[in-house]
Amino acid sequence: MTITGEMLIGATALRGNDRPIHAVEAATGQKLEPGFGGGSAADVERACALAWAAFDTYRETSLETRAAFLEACAEAILAIGDELVERACAESGLPRGRIEGERGRTVGQLRLFAATLREGSFLEARIDPALPQRQPLPRADLRLRQIPLGPVAVFGASNFPLAFSVAGGDTAAALAAGCPVIVKAHSAHPGTSELVGRALQSAVATCGLPEGVFSLLFGSGAVVGQGLVADPRIKAVGFTGSRAGGTALMKTAAERAEPIPVYAEMSSINPVFLLPAALEEKAEALGKAFVGSLTMGAGQFCTNPGLVLAVEGPALDRFIAAASEAVAAAAPQVMLTPGILQAYERGTAQLAGSSRVTKLAEGQAAKACTGSAALFSASAADFLADPHLQEEVFGSSSLILHCRDLAEMQALAEKLEGQLTATLHLVEADTEAARALLPTLERRAGRILANGWPTGVEVCHAMVHGGPYPATSDGRSTSVGTLAISRFLRPVCYQDLPAALLPEALRDGNPLGLWRRLDGALGRH
Amino acid sequence: MTITGEMLIGATALRGNDRPIHAVEAATGQKLEPGFGGGSAADVERACALAWAAFDTYRETSLETRAAFLEACAEAILAIGDELVERACAESGLPRGRIEGERGRTVGQLRLFAATLREGSFLEARIDPALPQRQPLPRADLRLRQIPLGPVAVFGASNFPLAFSVAGGDTAAALAAGCPVIVKAHSAHPGTSELVGRALQSAVATCGLPEGVFSLLFGSGAVVGQGLVADPRIKAVGFTGSRAGGTALMKTAAERAEPIPVYAEMSSINPVFLLPAALEEKAEALGKAFVGSLTMGAGQFCTNPGLVLAVEGPALDRFIAAASEAVAAAAPQVMLTPGILQAYERGTAQLAGSSRVTKLAEGQAAKACTGSAALFSASAADFLADPHLQEEVFGSSSLILHCRDLAEMQALAEKLEGQLTATLHLVEADTEAARALLPTLERRAGRILANGWPTGVEVCHAMVHGGPYPATSDGRSTSVGTLAISRFLRPVCYQDLPAALLPEALRDGNPLGLWRRLDGALGRH
């Protein structure tokens, strides 16, 4: 494949007329060719028109057709071969092993949704048969299924050029649900985006689907991004990025004549609670492992552990010593983009300059394009006194909070904003302390971990990658795992519809062999 | 029981200090005693503090405890006896048979949610066991359940003083989910609200639950209504009412530091499509039955058939003749409130005054406090030319649209706003015409009916009472039926949590006997 700098609108490829975007080699800051011409309002219009035209056909394709399509997407991505890995490494600065792993995750995610389609219970089929003899009034025949919302706009994320971008989690979930997808590529990795986009475009053609099922646009947030969210044919939005970016999309979506759901994953500092007995027993090992999680991928994970809470005392001092030593030894790492590096340096400088914060350690000196890990501490009281200390610093920066006692730790947990994750380190003697914290953590986070680290998000059935605002714009949902398909669905009820018109999922005799709820009882009936 | 005019805040009853609200006897316009003192910001604060204090305890009560509580609510409502029926009839002007039926529905709804709790699959328990040997990385133990969002503010509806008010659908679903509820009573039926509120308050006490599980406030929309929606401890809102009221609450909810979901059911004209062969075969019977649905309960249903579409011709003329005759014979009916009557008269006067609209018939002359049914017609082209004609007129008013052909009918359907329902009348010869319309109707409505009328919403498993904006603020949800519990839930994932800390629903050995998803497979395991 050759990267051309073209957008993919349905079955066509065309060069945008707006000022071209160039990718930058993350490790060197050098401009990569070609330029990617930015899209215009007319390009948004064309992509939306095609997506809308495709919707009714695509959403009624069989479960097997959509499953085979997702598998074809996976195959086509793999078929790009090493060119994809090399380009993604160049654009993101992430090491080859990580990109290869991320490709595996992306492909695995598409295949997992294929299996979810074949299993079919996401349709939530329900049948309450007619009761013509019921007194005082008969009951009609009522049947329910979930249908897709409509075309979805997906915004590629900077930090996962494959798994949260063109063919990432939201795209896979939306396509599985039966929604056409229009991706706005992240300007940090347009070449990677084009390669993956062409793979999806070819899978649409191979599978004989309407061309509007998938489009890929480049361009500005104002024209292409906001243009997509404002278009009346777009019915939901998936976004991973900054809080400012996410809230701007939420505002546009809420102000439409028909407001639509926005699933924006925005900001999380992922508190880690070191409970006393665990800290006493494993302070050094925890300190070292913590820095492993903190510095993984240059800290550029939504689930990076940006806050550590523990009760002050000698055990915490040991943890800090071990963590500081590990941070000091940490090599600088290439960051995704110059903008992200600048924001990281600004964030750590602000922490370092705060009178409430002590700088504990920093990693080896940064060279061009790299960031150094940074570790800070503050008292719980000082943390609460300055709301800025709760802001995410995207990168390998973390803040350790000294709490006077468990009560202060618990009170602080109660004041935290919504989070993607909350982590407990505990041994058996900490059980009661953990039990006291759990209700607060459940109210504050989408995932609660014990004796692990929040980086690393398994793609499976029981995953929740989501959480209360501002971790996400809609805490009722997850962006990772098979439950993510639900975010792009809505229920429709059919009352007394003649058999010839009923969707296959709801027909008598259960032709699809689905799990269905018959008068409320689950079964394959 | 005696109606005192007091609010119920947790276990206490107290009189609000704001200007008292008086109920009005709907049939006479006469003021009913006592006055209901309006709540203040301090009352909102107290109710929210109690609800918040109750939340962690209430949400972890057993499924059986919550089921028994909902049943106790039902029993306590029935135990009020005839006083409740009489007061509700007086305040609403609805006939005794309707109010008795509505009481049965309210009680049945609470009991259905009790059964839903005992069945337990709304928890959506998922377990992906650890895979310690997996290469290249082991998998952690991951478990998911749904937990309640938090305290919910419920706004009583004018048109269902029992089934959509203090102990109505949203309250039942929220309490079932594990959310404390604060109801703002509708000022049209404060006495009914107090009676039902006292029943719920007594059930809370009888069941030994924290007092903050339920509170009932009277007062103004500005102080009590907006105050509740703005309070940071309120995590979701249920509302049934006008589009202006619903959008005002949406705005407040979106502007909070932490935006929250609003489930507002606002406005729907419930289009009815008379397909040609059915119309030819049954024009007169359809005309008569249509008016039966139109005038039921003085047309004061969210699902009232406010729009009828058919292809012009002799069959439609016969339908119109029969419907006009039935409307002309319709007795005037007491309307819920003077305000609703005025809005109805304003709406029908506007239709009558429109140059695009022909008045076909009106019901028998109205007396004080009553409204007369009204029937209008227009061409499809004129309807599309004036967006005001698509606005809901709450009451027994409907507009019949002449379409030139099926293509125009379909084009018009595509232009309709989101609806709660869409109805098809068809016989076998209409199957292809119906098939062509269905995709549009699925995109536009929450429930699609064949050969029936949209009034009458069954409380069951397969019901959807919801639909795209502006029918509701959130088309991903239903306010009626057991699926409504989902609107008050969000998923949480537990990773490697020690067995002692796991919620019972997720423990090994399935102690609750739930349907769970194990590595993706549903079963009672």
TrEMBL record, chains A, B:
Top-rank taxon: Bacteria
This protein's UniProt keywords: Oxidoreductase
Pfam families, per database record: Aldedh
Annotated EC: 1.2.1.26
Ranges for domain Aldehyde dehydrogenase: 23-467
GO MF term (any one): 2,5-dioxovalerate dehydrogenase (NADP+) activity
InterPro entries hit by this protein: Ald_DH/histidinol_DH, Ald_DH_C, Ald_DH_N, Aldehyde_DH_dom, Aldehyde_DH_Superfamily, ALDH_KGSADH
Keyword Phosphoprotein: no
Protein name: 2,5-dioxovalerate dehydrogenase
